[in-house]
């Protein structure tokens, strides 16, 4: 009997040990979270706050700058008016293209206008422009500068710019500056604006022609004796006020054979036609005429005067673009009778 009792006692002890064994991981976790739930909520909130702040104060500036860098500008109207030796009046209307989902507002800022040649920024800006406050929408928004009088920062750069505008098919310029970006209730971000734009220009005045030419054989010496119209297309959105322009007329045989004057010349988009008055040395012109009655003429800009002042940057640009034209002298004489 004693042996049986001992076995029963040991069995009860084993059952008791099994019943009082350590709880599993799930039970431990449940007990832990039940007791310390508030601590976990606090840790989660702190981590969420840190992540959010990092996104706002570290990620947001990068996102904002990336959005600005990804935007492009397309000019719809670009006017250079009222030229002076040290100043220009600029009107600029443009469409701003943005692929960003954000619609930020940029504070007004001062931007430097650079000429970009072969993707290389020139070392000195042409001028500076006051860019107005702009609300950037997706995918497009408008930005305008109207009648802004600007000082020429570097005459050499403006001369190079004017020369490229006159002689090339396209030109590239860039606006650069620093401003502040606002996006809703997010912190204000400092951004660097740097936008290059390539646009059509005057393309060397291709299509240039002189029409309706008549010669006044009885005009007094020194007075205009040749009249007609100068025509050329302007494929760009550019408007350029030049003023009174003098052109030199020359041939290989006789050299300079005369000069032509265009008064109050302003080039506008589309087809341009201007009245011309010229003083022609008839003897030299006839000596330069071939057997078929044609004269090959080289036409070069020599003087640009606006409000009584020489505009040297336009004079140098015109001098760099020599135009060639074949005039039918026999036909001109026949039309002049």
Can you describe what's shown?
This protein is an alpha+beta fold and 337 residues long. It has two domains: 71-201, Sandwich (Immunoglobulin-like); 204-336, Immunoglobulin-like. It is built from six helices and 18 strands. The chain has helices spanning 2-19, 25-70, 155-167, 282-287, 312-319, 329-336, and strands at 72-84, 87-97, 105-106, 109-117, 120-121, 127-131, 134-135, 140-151, 170-182, 189-200, 209-215, 226-234, 238-251, 255-267, 270-280, 294-306, 309-310, 323-328. Strands 1, 2, 8, 11, 12, 13, 14, 15, 16, 17 and 18 form an eleven-stranded mixed β-sheet that branches. A hairpin with a 2-residue loop joins strand 14 (255-267) and strand 15. The chain is elongated. It starts with a helix and ends with a helix. The relative contact order is 0.12.
């Amino acid at each position: 009997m004693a042996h049986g009792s001992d076995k029963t006692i040991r069995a009860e002890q084993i059952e008791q040990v099994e019943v009082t064994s350590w709880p599993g991981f799930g039970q431990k976790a449940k007990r832990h979270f039940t007791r310390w739930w508030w601590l976990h909520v606090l840790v989660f909130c702190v981590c969420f706050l840190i992540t959010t702040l990092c996104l706002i104060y570290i990620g947001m500036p990068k996102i904002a700058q990336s959005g600005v860098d990804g935007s492009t500008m397309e000019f719809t109207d670009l006017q250079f008016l009222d030229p002076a030796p040290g100043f220009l009046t600029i009107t600029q209307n443009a469409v701003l293209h943005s692929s960003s989902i954000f619609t930020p507002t940029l504070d007004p800022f001062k931007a430097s206008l650079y000429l970009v040649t072969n993707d290389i920024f020139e070392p000195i800006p042409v001028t500076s422009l006051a860019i107005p406050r702009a609300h950037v929408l997706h995918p497009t928004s408008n930005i305008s500068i109207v009648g802004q009088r600007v000082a020429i920062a570097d005459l050499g750069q403006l001369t190079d710019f004017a020369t490229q505008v006159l002689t090339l098919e396209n030109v590239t310029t860039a606006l650069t500056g620093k401003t502040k970006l606002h996006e809703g209730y997010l912190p204000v971000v400092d951004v660097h604006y740097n936008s290059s734009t390539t646009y059509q220009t005057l393309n060397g005045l291709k299509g240039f022609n002189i029409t309706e030419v008549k010669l006044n054989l009885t005009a007094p010496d020194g007075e205009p004796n040749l009249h007609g119209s100068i025509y050329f297309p302007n494929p760009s959105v550019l408007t350029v006020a030049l003023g009174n322009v003098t052109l030199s007329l020359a041939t290989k045989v006789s050299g300079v054979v005369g000069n032509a004057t265009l008064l109050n010349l302003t080039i506008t988009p589309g087809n341009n036609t201007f009245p011309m008055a010229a003083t022609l040395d008839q003897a030299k012109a006839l000596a330069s005429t071939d057997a078929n009655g044609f004269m090959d003429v080289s036409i070069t800009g020599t003087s640009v005067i606006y409000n009584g002042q020489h505009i040297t940057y336009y004079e140098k640009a015109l001098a760099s673009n020599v135009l060639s034209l074949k005039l039918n002298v026999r036909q001109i004489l026949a039309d002049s009778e």
